[in-house]
């Protein structure tokens, strides 16, 4: 539980602090180069994203917000029950990233959960924020835990994630399955 809670807190503080910095020091339309290595170019560019990833869903922001809230609550429910440090970390990253962007949708709303997310890290094809980076690390962590067979310590979750793969690979064609 401590790993999950600490991960969420650190992620949220880092995300909100960087967004606050971006709002205070960057202006819309401004593009400040930070790194340029051949085709890799990263710059700082302030945008207010009304949608989900790449601006998709900008007309249904409130649905995206409710989905993020429900997902964060469900993931938090399981994260507080896991006995695995690795799963606690991965799920903490997930909740941190989702809630980081949800905070923006609440803080900058002009209607019901229709606020825009503060994006400021320009990767070239898209502009994101620290919460997006955290969500990327969360996805890699979850996939890693699953591929490495790291058990969550929650019987029902472990059976959903691992038993079906194990039972189908260990059951021969001639054996009956329960």
What descriptive keywords fit this protein?
single chain, globular, disordered C terminus, alpha+beta, 178 residues, 4-stranded antiparallel β-sheet, 13% strand
Protein architecture, described:
- This protein is of the alpha+beta class and 178 residues long.
- Helix content is 56%, strand content 13%.
- The chain contains five helices and four strands.
- It has helices at 2-25, 61-79, 85-107, 130-147, 155-170, and strands at 32-37, 40-49, 117-122, 127-128.
- A hairpin with a 4-residue loop joins strand 3 (117-122) and strand 4.
- The two termini are 35 Å apart.
What secondary-structure arrangement, pairings included, does this model have?
Elements: H1 2-25, E1 32-37, E2 40-49, H2 61-79, H3 85-107, E3 117-122, E4 127-128, H4 130-147, H5 155-170
Antiparallel strand pairs: 1-2, 2-3, 3-4
Number of strands: 4
Quaternary state of the chains = single chain
> How are the strands ordered across the major sheet?
1-2-3-4
Helix percentage range: 55-70%
Structural class based on helices, strands and sheet pairing? alpha+beta
Summarize the structure.
This protein is of the alpha+beta class and 178 residues long.
């Amino acid at each position: 539980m401590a790993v999950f809670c600490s991960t969420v807190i650190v992620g949220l503080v880092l995300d909100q602090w960087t967004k606050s910095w971006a709002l205070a020091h960057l202006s819309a339309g401004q593009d400040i180069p930070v790194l340029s290595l051949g085709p890799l170019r990263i710059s700082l560019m302030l945008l207010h994203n009304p949608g989900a990833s790449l601006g998709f869903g900008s007309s249904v922001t409130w649905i995206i917000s409710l989905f993020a809230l429900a997902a964060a609550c469900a993931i938090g429910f399981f994260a507080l029950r896991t006995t695995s440090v690795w799963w606690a970390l991965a799920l903490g990253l997930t909740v941190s990233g989702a809630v980081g962007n949800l905070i923006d949708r609440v803080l900058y709303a002009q209607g019901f959960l229709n606020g825009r997310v503060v994006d400021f890290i320009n990767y070239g094809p898209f502009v994101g924020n620290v919460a997006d980076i955290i969500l990327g690390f969360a996805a890699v962590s979850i996939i890693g835990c699953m591929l490495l067979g790291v058990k969550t310590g929650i019987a029902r979750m472990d059976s959903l994630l691992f038993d079906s793969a194990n039972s189908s690979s260990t059951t021969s064609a001639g054996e009956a399955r329960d």
